Task: structure prediction
Amino acid sequence: MAKAEFDIIVLGAGPGGYVGAIRAAQLGFRTALIEANHLGGVCLNWGCIPTKAMLRSAEIYRQFKHAESYGLSSSQVEFDLQKIVARSRNIAKQLSSGVAHLLKKNKVTVFDGYGRLLGGGKLSVEKNGREPLFLSGKHILLATGSRPRISPGLEPDGNLVWTSKEALVPKSLPPSLLVIGSGAIGIEFASFYNAFGSKVTVVEIMDQILPTEDREIAEFAQKEMEKQGIRFLLGTKVGNLRRDEGTVEATCEKAGKSESITVSRVISAVGVVPNVEDIGLEAAGVLLDARGFIQTNAHGRTTAEGIFAIGDVSGGPCLAHKASHEAILCVETIAGLQGVHALDKTLIPSCTYSHPQVASVGLTEVMAKEAGNQINVGRFPARGNGKAIAMGEPEGLVKTIFDARTGELLGAHLVGAEVTELIQGFAIAKNLETTEVDLIRTIFPHPTLSEMIHESVLGACGRAIHV
Ligand code: FAD
Result:
């Protein structure tokens, strides 16, 4: 029975766990990392990266189909779904091996197996019924992530009703598709399958798509996607799924009325639940919060001495960059570094890589008003931006929200081409507590999409030039 001792043991090698392990090793801790499935976690293997690889194929296909509008001609544009999937899987594999390399380079000891807390700083690691390994650590970092939420009656079966995992490896293109849930994951799959010709319907129980986004931006994105042929049923609940051979009949209910829709496949994208079961939380005295996530403070400390939790398992927003950022804060706190800041969730940007893309940071207009702020709102449409027009992507909007009294940037909300890249300008601005005056005085290169940031801020101050 092997036993090994470490300063820090990390459970789960997603973007939270592997980043935390590397930082811990850099700080001189003897570090172990336990992973049951795949280095890189959901993000690299079944989330952020493979979806973006597939969406890139969709984007290029869309461009090819509009070749004429760029003065190009291409007679027969075809796609091979299996090659698209293979490309996405290869990219995931490549990045997962990259993580293995980084862990080795930083001298993190990796254990391949399922880890469980035993209490008293001890963990077991099991794999395929072999004799368990026992590890003990002065500090333990839980980063076990999350998995798709399963709603009763809408249980995925891997064949007709998919989770995001099956949706990433389709054997063929479903002629019709029902996506349940219009968060970022649902909208990205709707966008991907629509681009290749599936007839897509999205059902959302709330009265706007991308429910956490600013309403005006979400409605803008919805209209653009409707023009591409996606149908949205808002304020609608899928009550039941009747599975037949090759098809699924979904009962969609809205305000006492019901409509039945028959589709070839369903994607259930109704959120995620944390992986908190069967990891020994009770044995170690780690408590959950009211929503079922591990309860932590702003530096990842749980209710048990010496045990920390970060990433999806410790609560939303369930995003890879939140997980990695928390991991660093947490490990630096364990190391006793001076001036480690607390996580400020209002500074976490969120992105949806659909067509058009959506990105935001900070308060929505409704949230800013509800918080009692007097606000100045600036808007700039992409059709007023030279680069967007030159790119042939003039559908978009940049919306900025400032505190009218102090000029502080409260929120930025974008829809359109490459806004998932542009949002970082606002994330930096917010982190530095930039005011509208600072942004107005900033010089933006021409011609770029980033000039929309400038114009939107000018608009908030009633000084717009190009509208
Ligand atoms: P995870 O990535 O879930 O990793 C946890 C790891 O722990 C897993 O590898 C798991 O095998 C392992 N594990 C769990 N329990 C044990 C155990 N007992 N023993 C050993 N190992 C264990 N986020 C973004 O920021 N941008 C995106 O574009 C984006 N797109 C997404 C698309 C999809 C389809 C999905 C599903 C998610 C997407 N996300 C995206 C969310 C992102 O993947 C997660 O927020 C992120 O992976 C969370 O990181 P984590 O380290 O907390 O956990």
Summary: The domain at 5-148+273-335 is CATH 3.50.50.60 (FAD/NAD(P)-binding domain).
